[in-house]
Specification:
With about 350 residues, this protein is mainly alpha-helical. It has helices spanning about 5-30, 30-55, 65-80, 85-105, 110-115, 135-140, 150-165, 165-170, 200-215, 235-250, 265-280, 285-290, 295-300, 305-320, 340-345; strands at about 180, 185-190, 195-200. Helix 4 (about 85-105) packs antiparallel against helix 5 (about 110-115) and helix 7 (about 150-165) crosses helix 11.
């Protein structure tokens, strides 16, 4: 192996190590779930790249070009039968890595910049699966609340119906984030963003009952978590999804409703959102409660109930109307020196 090849290989290895050890957790502050997703992406990508090149030489940064990335994305869809959303998620991880590489290897700008132009694949927007109130009541009615496991499951399903939390958010609930008197609960959402929301009085009763009557003694490292599994450890996203699927199957619900999608936590999340809109809550209130980063993510629920669509859209237009400028700025900006720019920033 030549000296230059060894240096290049070492550079790729160091960049990958830096990406996961420093760049993602420290500089971008992404969540552990995002890091795990990107880790899985690179395990798949580097394994495929090594096998496709059929060479015993170490991989180097110059081996990874837009052509190889596009072929890998095609491999995900055709050979691994991944969905378009999974394909796009893998691409996002790869793009983030090469964006970081540009900071360390600016001499490779043309090659690294070309990777950023690989497009995200457009996909059809699926129908949103949600439960009617009667179906929710059927699932809740089949939970055996006379056992510790059943009491825990009953609480989780009620929390999902009340708050529309994600599975990871349920797992991360903390004891000190629950305020019984104020009827509030603190939720750590995507992007490590906290939000505090009010919960139903019934939900408060269930949480208090679980804490005082059913909550197992946790292992020391998990003592601050609100909900503990049967082993005294934290819940897992897989466990929460499995719980939802279990009671969907157990309830007396028509087979056509018991689809694979409806067995997921996200169907409960959609149900909470639709329930709020039907009760007259604004889109902004739904956005805050669900922890959406953008209002566009919340607006999709307007397509689900035509009887309320016109009313909610009119309300949204009234809210956004005053945000739009009526005229263009009268003055143009023509700063010529850095000092002038700094002076402006100080005045902001």
């Amino acid at each position: 192996m030549s000296s230059s090849s060894s240096v290049a290989h070492d550079d790729l290895a160091r960049l990958i190590a830096y990406f996961f050890r420093e760049y993602l957790p420290t500089h971008k502050g992404v969540s552990p779930n995002t890091i795990r997703s990107y880790r899985d992406t690179f395990k798949l990508f580097l394994s495929w790249l090594r096998d496709s090149k059929d060479s015993k030489k170490p991989l180097v940064l110059s081996d990874i070009r837009p052509k190889e990335i596009l072929e890998f994305l095609r491999h995900l869809e055709t050979d691994r039968l991944n969905s378009i959303s999974t394909r796009n998620a893998r691409l996002a991880g790869i793009k983030t890595f090469f964006l970081m590489c540009y900071l360390h290897r600016p001499e490779l700008k043309p090659e690294l910049e070309a990777i950023q132009f690989i497009p995200k694949k457009k996909m059809n927007t699926p129908l949103i699966d949600f439960f009617e109130h009667e179906d929710v009541m059927k699932m809740l009615s089949v939970v055996d609340r006379s056992t510790a496991s059943g009491a825990k499951d009953f609480l989780i399903l009620n929390l999902l119906y009340d708050t529309g939390m994600r599975a990871s958010e349920v797992c991360g609930l903390r004891l000190d984030g629950f305020n019984s008197a104020a009827r509030t609960i603190e939720i750590l959402g995507k992007g490590n963003k906290w939000r505090k929301i009010h919960v139903w009085p019934r939900t408060v009763e269930l949480i208090n009952n679980y804490i005082h009557e059913w909550r197992k003694s946790p292992r020391p490292i998990f003592r601050d978590l609100l909900i503990i599994n049967h082993c005294g450890k934290t819940l897992t996203r897989f466990g929460v999804h499995k719980l939802c699927a279990k009671y969907l199957k157990k309830a007396d619900i028509p087979k056509q409703i018991r689809s694979a999608k409806r067995s997921s936590v996200h169907s409960w999340r959609h149900t909470a959102a639709v329930n709020m809109i039907r009760q007259g809550y604004s889109l902004l209130e739904v956005k805050v409660r669900l922890g959406h980063a953008r209002l566009e993510s919340t607006m999709k629920y307007l397509n689900l109930d035509l009887s309320i669509k016109k009313e909610r859209v009119t309300e949204l237009l009234r809210f956004t109307e005053h945000l739009l400028p009526s005229t263009l700025p009268a003055q143009s900006v023509a700063w010529k020196t850095t000092d002038e720019v700094i002076a402006f920033l100080k005045s902001v």
